[in-house]
């Protein structure tokens, strides 16, 4: 592990302060009198609570978390640690929890609910308990989650450093005979040893002309062979926050076609990272990468969007693609990951996680990408 990677990977736990988040949401909710938050990722962002059951009622002057008997003490501790001056109510049954919710919102006439995260059955239940008072909302919490504060960036940078460090250990072992599953297992073991909770997602290791053309291939017992391209898409999870990075290697000397494709993908990816800045639309950013690959003759084989937001979820707003209507803003963290996939040579993808700063983009992932050749093992 490099000195910089080691420093980030072993840094003390970052403490998140969520106290400013509820006021930000209230400032954007218009004429609502309260907001019901049931999506657990949004509940966590708003309060710091990580349990598997809970509903937040956001009132004009109070945050109330309703949960079941498993989580009462945990919720009290986590809200206090996160700086959320909220009240925790415990109902042992679903009926008791619905009764508590009804009491909490007794004076509120316009109750926002998360339409994208509410099942029809839950909507019917709430409608019967709170007739004529429900107002559908979309993205009120997600809009706040987009802007990462310094503590969130620190967690994501630590996750990136752990993934960088794990890949630095594993990349030199990419030799004929090693299987995709073995490489994946080594990466995930090392990330845990370096301080991650676990992998950010199911690690992708894809080798050869059959597997590497599949952008989200799941590792198998397929063995690496000389002449293969090997795509490794790896991320670490730290404090609930994700990292995301892809590097592609060629086993042995690249063929002229493999080198041509790698150079084209790398040029598109570097240009995309350089284009990241506040004010650029996600469609414009996608066009930077897609345009260069099209000019190089590989446009038809770039089969997915250029990137996506990352945070408490591995895929979240904003999404960077040819249909995107998002505008990047300071505090966004997005991937830039063009790729080309063809059965005659395999696949190539290069990806970095990039923070949108006031002056441009800052790559949080640092694994070298200038060459498709795997690094050699250290001699000392």
Automatic annotation (TrEMBL):
Residues 31-145 form the Creatinase N-terminal domain. Signal peptide: none annotated. The keyword Ubl conjugation does not apply. GO terms for molecular function: hydrolase activity; metal ion binding. This is Unannotated protein. Residues 155-357 form the Peptidase M24 domain. Residues 359-380 are annotated as: Disordered. It comes from freshwater metagenome. Pfam families: Creatinase_N (PF01321), Peptidase_M24 (PF00557). Keywords: Hydrolase, Metal-binding. The keyword Hydrolase applies. Residues 359-369 have a biased composition (Polar residues). InterPro entries: Creatin/AminoP/Spt16_N, Creatinase/aminopeptidase-like, Creatinase_N, Pept_M24, Peptidase_M24B, Peptidase_M24B_aminopep-P_CS. Residues 371-380 have a biased composition (Pro residues).
